[in-house]
Amino acid sequence: MDSRYTYLLIDVLTVLFPFLLSFDKKVAFYKQWKNLWVGLLITGVVFIAWDVWFTAMGIWQFNDKYILGVKPAGLPIEEWMFFLVVPYSCVFIYECLLCYFPFRQKRDWGWNVLLAIGIAVLIAGFMNSYKAYTFSAFSLCGFALILLYVLRRKFPSFHAAAFVLCYLISLLPFLIVNGFLTALPVVIYNDAENLGIRIYTIPFEDCFYGMLLMLGNVWGMEWMRGRRAKIN
Questions:
Q1: Which stretches within 22-109 are classed as H helix?
Q2: Which residues span the domain enclosing 112?
Q3: Is the CB of residue 130 less than 8 Å from the CB of residue 194?
Q4: What residues in the chain have per-residue pLDDT under 70?
Q5: Domain count along the chain
Q6: Closest to 195 (Cα-Cα) out of 141, 121, 143, 142
């Protein structure tokens, strides 16, 4: 296979099984597509803008050997797809957890976990304000988690415990995908702008970059779902 199709193939394989299983009778995730688009759109705009900026600054770059070479706004088209296929797959896992396991909102231990993580990574972000990727990934993730905790009563349909479990489950496939991207490498990081701590070949910051990406999409879907429920 031509190596230029590598990143495209990774994108396709990432979303293939979640997409096919979206039509499972119990989960029926395809019925949530109308609610999913808000999170995908808002989060996608933020992350693509972030990506364009950091690519231009040299925080990371893409290896032309493994991409098609089509670069809207300076980003490989496969990178644009990444912000569709990865969130879709992660939110699918979240929806499966809601369908197969009961979560009690009034005793949702997940909120305390998210608050603790939020405080910890926000502090870590400001302690590393001189490293662009560390600071941005940690501080934005921490701020988002704390803000969501403060406003939790406004989002009664958001299941924090389900989100925490979804994140932990998603870490394995997320790290596998990012492992391929960083090991080949498709994406090359400037280590002067991160902690230099790697999980195999993956910068540690990617764990919280991924959490923020997932959070924005789950929140968007639950916000739309709650809004539709009020209307109906």
A1: 33-57, 77-100
A2: 3-231
A3: no
A4: 103-107, 229-232
A5: 1
A6: 121
Of 126, 161, 139, 104, residue with least CA distance to 212: 139
Q: Residue 28 corresponds to which tokens in the numbers above?
A: 């029926």
Amino acid identity at 105: Q
Q: Does the global pTM surpass 0.85?
A: yes
Residue pair 76/7 in contact (Cβ under 8 Å)? The answer is yes
Torsion region of 52: left, alpha or beta (phi above 0 gives left; psi -120 to 50 gives alpha): alpha
Distance CA 188, CA 199 (A): 15
Calculate the alpha carbon distances from 83 to 28, 36, 160, 230 in Å. Answer: 22, 13, 22, 29
Give the CA-trace dihedral at 78, 83, 85, 87, to 10 degrees: 160
Compute the residue count for the chain. 232
Integer Cα distance of 40 and 156 in angstroms: 20
Q: What is the pLDDT of residue 104?
A: 62
202: left (phi over 0), alpha (psi -120 to 50) or beta: beta
* Burial class of residue 226 in the structure, from the number of CB atoms within 10 Å of its CB (0-12 exposed, 13-18 middle, 19+ buried): middle
